[in-house]
Amino acid sequence: MKWLTGNTVDILTALNEDFRLTQEDNQQVEEQVRQIIRQVIQNGDQALKDYSKKFDQVELQELFISQETIDQGYQQVEKEVIAALEAAKENIISYHQKQKQHDFMDTEKTGVLRGQLVLPLARVGVYVPGGTAAYPSSVLMNVLPAKIAGVKEIIMVTPPSVNGVPDVILAAAKIAGVNKIFQIGGAQSIAALAYGTETVPKVDKIVGPGNIYVATAKKQVFGVVGIDMIAGPSEIGILADESANPTYIAADLLSQAEHDTLARTILVTNSISLAEQVEKDIYRQLESLPRKEIAIQAIKNHGRIIIASTIASMFTIMNEIAPEHLEVQLTDPISYLHEIKNAGSIFLGEYASEPVGDYFSGTNHVLPTSGTAKFYSPLGVYDFVKYSQVTYYTKEALAEVKDAITVLARKEGLEAHARAIEYRFD
C-alpha cells in the first residue's frame, strides 16, 4: 500500500492527483458503447443475441426467463440461503419504509390551494451484475425500495452464462417480487431498457451497479430514461486511532479489495503503529483469500494509508475523499457522527463491519462512489417516485395578486403571460 504523510493540504493534493489519473475518460469505451447502443436501437433482439454470443459466449434462443425456470432455480437454492435472503428482505423493508414520502396540500390563504403529489414511476429496469460473482443481495437492494415506492412493473436484466443465470439470482428475484427477467448484460442491456426491443419493454428509469461498460451506457442513455447514479469501482475509507483492532481493519479493507482490481481502500489514522500493524495483517490475510489475485492488485495500486496529525485533520481528509463506505473505528465513534460531511454509508464502531450493510442491516448498498457522495445519496425509495405540483386559485384570490404577476411578466418581456392573467378580469 502507498503511504501518504505530511500536512493536510499536501495529502489532499496527492489524493486528488491519484483520483484524476484513475478517472480519466476512456474514449475507446465511450465509442464502443455508443456503437452498441446504436446497434440495439436498429436491430433490437437480434443485436442482443449477437452481443451475448460475442461477449458472454452464449447463444441464446430466448432472452426472457420463464416463471417455470425461476421457480426451478428457487428450488435448487439451499434452505439456509433462502432463509438468509428472507431475513435480509425483512430488514431492508423495515428500513426503507421509513423513507416513504407523502402528498401534501395547504390552504394557508383564502381561495388558494397548493400541494404536491408523490407519484411512483410506472416501470423500472434493474441491472444485476454477473461475471466473476453472483450478487443476490443487489437484487434485494434495488428491487425492494422500488416495490415500497409503488412501482408497478420491475424489469430485471442480468448477464447470461453457459450454465444460465445463477439459481440464487433467480431465487432473490422471486423473493423480491421482480415482474420480468431477461438474460442480457453489459451496455446492450442498458440500451434495451432505455429504448425497448421486440421483447424487452422500455422503462422509465434504470438502476443498479455494473462495470465500466454498464456505467458508460447509463451515462449515454440518461435523458432518454432516468438513472440512479453512475457508479465507479467499490471503495472503503476507514478512520481509526490507536484503540482500533488492526486485524478487523485489514479484513474490512480486503472486503472491498476483493470486488475489483480497481477498488479503492483507504485507511486514515493518527497512529503510525496501527498503520504498520494493519499493513502487515493485510498481506497475512491475503495469503488465504480465494480472490487473492484481484484483491492484491487493488491493494497495491489503489490502497492508501494516510497518516494525519490530529483527529480533526483525519475528518477533513476523509470528508474530501467522500467514500462510498466509511467506517469510524475511533474511541466513542458515535460522538463523531456530526463531523462526517460526505459519505455514502457510515459504519460506527468495530462491530459495524461494512459487510453488515452489504447484506443484512437493511441500509442500502447501492451507493455513490468516486467522491460523488458530496452530492449523491444512497439508493432509496425516493429514487422511484416523482413529484407533481398542484395549484388552485379562486377568482377572488387571483384578483388580489394579479397586478404583481403582470408586473413581473412584463419586466421579463413576456406580454402574453401578463395578458393571460388580465383577460380573466376584462
UniProtKB/TrEMBL annotation:
The active site is at E324, H325. One of its GO terms (cellular component) is cytosol. Substrate binds at S234, Q256, H259, H325, D358, E412, H417. NAD(+) binds at Y127, Q188, N211. Residues 12-39 form a coiled coil. GO terms for molecular function: histidinol dehydrogenase activity; NAD binding; zinc ion binding. Keywords: Amino-acid biosynthesis, Coiled coil, Histidine biosynthesis, Metal-binding, NAD, Oxidoreductase, Zinc. Pathway: Amino-acid biosynthesis; L-histidine biosynthesis; L-histidine from 5-phospho-alpha-D-ribose 1-diphosphate: step 9/9. It holds the Pfam family Histidinol_dh. It is an enzyme of class 1 (oxidoreductase). It catalyses: L-histidinol + 2 NAD(+) + H2O = L-histidine + 2 NADH + 3 H(+). One of its GO terms (biological process) is L-histidine biosynthetic process. Binds 1 zinc ion per subunit. Its cofactor is Zn(2+). Its EC number is 1.1.1.23. It comes from the Bacteria. Belongs to the histidinol dehydrogenase family. Catalyzes the sequential NAD-dependent oxidations of L-histidinol to L-histidinaldehyde and then to L-histidine. This is Histidinol dehydrogenase. It comes from Enterococcus caccae ATCC BAA-1240. The lineage of its organism: Bacteria, Bacillati, Bacillota, Bacilli, Lactobacillales. The gene is hisD.
